[in-house]
Design goal:
Two copies of one chain form a homodimer. The first copy, chain A, is mostly helical. The first copy, chain A, has helices at 13-28, 35-42, 46-52, 56-81, 85-102, 104-112, 124-127, 129-143, 152-171, 183-194. Chain A binds a DNA duplex (18 and 18 nucleotides) through helix 3.
Chain lengths: 199, 199
DNA sequence: GTCTATATCCAGATAGAC
DNA sequence: GTCTATCTGGATATAGAC
């Protein structure tokens, strides 16, 4: 789930701990989760955990980097498999919505934890790398005349802001239905906002 | 700043503490702020603080309720002073953008702290009351034919998602310019997404 | 109502056997 | 590499003088 480690058979403490941490961090929050909590949930000993991770903070960091990397890979795949900006944007929202329903914990941790509160020097670049892919994607759409010329930050925010907002509402359980039910709608309207129809 | 207390002259510990707490919570985060930190910053003693607040959590609660209430008032004022959905949406985004630049701490605390992590029983209704005002506003726009008929959650998310996303980028310092510079653009494009032009 | 001094608890982290 | 037992600091919260 977390890593695509090679040695899947031998009990991998690192991975076990990361899975427990992901669960506990998203359910109780980082600060409400103690290392003893992780010990209990993962059934790994304190000693083992501290053998594999320098400290509690490092667990969160490893988790974060791992998930961001996975997201980056998925986004790059979408860029390879689809050619128009419109298709790519659609696929990205689809991916985000699927993740929200299938792995809400992952989504919650990636999008809505305040990482800066517990990860000391989060590389601002890394933190926003998936964001940058999306921004560049929209910018490319402007060059190919698919998207209206406008401020790039505005374009990417308008294109994905609605979907991200829906995800948040869903994770907060304000939205009761699966967020996928809204996929076609939210894409259609968000795209309508930025598309260039003065062809 | 925080409260409109009557007795502004006599040193008001409650208010002083709330101001310090807002500052510290947004800069360092709730969990990285200790009561001794608040003691130092506010220059109020531990004893005084615990005389006015049951515990640390209660400080955050008081702060949160106070800010949400203020926001609610502002939104209601906008509803009174403007009649079309379009104008109201514009004014709401304008308000949010002004708050972002003038009182970024307030904005950060309201929009992006994970309150559920530290406020025990946050009334889900209260937590989303400003959200509900916005939703109802957009819904009213559908009845008056200003806004296309669509799922209300989708509509409110698309209408305000872009602006909220820009605010987040600004608070995270990814966006370097004042977010107001984007006001006209983000409103224009977001509104374009949901407006009804089959009049 | 405000203060200082202090009790209590438990988190994060380490030591050292196996 | 994994474990149990334990240290230590600092956090929340209280006691009690003024």
């Amino acid at each position: 789930m977390i890593s695509n480690a090679i040695n899947t058979r031998k009990k991998n403490i690192r991975e076990t701990v990361l899975n427990s941490a992901l669960h506990l961090f998203t359910v109780k929050g980082y600060f409400n989760t103690s290392v003893p909590d992780i010990v209990k949930h993962s059934a790994c000993s304190t000693g083992s955990i501290y053998h594999h991770f320098a400290d509690k903070k490092s667990i969160a960091e490893a988790l974060y980097n791992c998930l961001v990397e996975r997201m980056e890979t998925s986004l790059n795949e979408i860029n390879q498999n689809y050619d128009t900006t419109k298709q790519r944007c659609y696929q990205i929202i689809k991916l985000l919505f699927e993740l929200t329903e299938n792995e809400p914990e992952v989504m919650r941790f990636m999008l809505f934890s305040k990482h800066r509160e517990f990860i000391a020097d989060i590389a601002p670049i890394c933190s926003t790398k998936p964001f940058m892919i999306m921004r560049d994607l929209v910018a490319a759409g402007m060059e190919s005349n698919e998207v209206q010329i406008m401020d790039k930050m505005v374009a990417v925010s308008v294109m994905f802001g609605g979907a991200l907002r829906l995800i948040q509402l869903r994770l907060d359980n304000v939205l009761k239905e699966p967020v996928q039910d809204k996929l076609e709608d939210v894409f259609t309207y968000s795209w309508k906002a930025i598309e260039n129809n003065t062809e």
